[in-house]
Amino acid sequence: MHYIPQMLNFSNNDLNNEGRLRTVFDVGCGVANFGAYLISSDIIAMSLAPNGLFELAHCSRCRIDWLQKDGLLLLELDSLLRPGGYFAYSSPKAYAQDEKDLRIWREMSALVERMCWRIAAKRDQIVIWQKPLTNDCYLERESGTCSPLCQSDDDPDATWCVLMEPCIAPYSDHDYQNSVSGLAPWPARLTSPPPRLTDFGYSSGMFEKDAVIGPIFL
């Protein structure tokens, strides 16, 4: 598991990255040994709350068919990542030793390129992609690119009883101000209001008032 912070050159070779990476979504987790490993780094892993957003998603020895239905599952994963979030993918497809793996790798590479993900690091059969921080790449794509941006009336925060759509949810005005949505590193994040709260009419003053009570229940 130590390969991810090494590949991303995180400080002190720690996935926590000085508190900047706090939540991890582990896809196809098996017996959840990755989540257990992250405890020592003060990282919360495998929180499956439907409205949760994550700084990193992980799929080891990944056998999920991400290409089915025009990449619908990968697009759903994209919606779970914060701006600038990472997807660590470990699979023989990334190493492409035979023609079948090479074909799958090419198709998946083309898909994530259309989604504006970039390769942050790659080693043997491990690749780590990073989601963009802004809407710039989305807006620069050619008209008719698959997958399209979601309609403006789609609510990216709707989570219950909502059908998955093969589209990319663009960021709001406050989502991409800084790396990881402008969130403060952990544990300062507990008492620092995220910029995106203004999208919901929630002021910094309201957040600070709640924060006085909130930590008591942690």
Automatic annotation (TrEMBL):
One GO molecular function term of this record is: methyltransferase activity
What UniProt keywords apply to this chain's record, in alphabetical order? Glycoprotein, Methyltransferase, Signal-anchor, Transferase, Transmembrane
Instruction: Provide the protein's localization.
Output: Endomembrane system; Membrane
Q: What is its main location?
A: membrane
Question: What domain of life does the UniProt record list for this protein's source?
Answer: Eukaryota
Listed under GO biological process in this entry are: methylation
Provide the topology term for how it sits in the membrane: Single-pass membrane protein; Single-pass type II membrane protein
Q: Recorded E.C. number(s)?
A: 2.1.1.-
Entry GO CC:
endosome; membrane; trans-Golgi network
Q: Which family does it belong to?
A: Belongs to the methyltransferase superfamily.
Which PANTHER family does its entry note?
METHYLTRANSFERASE PMT8-RELATED (PTHR10108:SF1120), SAM-DEPENDENT METHYLTRANSFERASE (PTHR10108)
Q: What is this protein called?
A: Methyltransferase
Species the sequence originates in: Olea europaea subsp. europaea
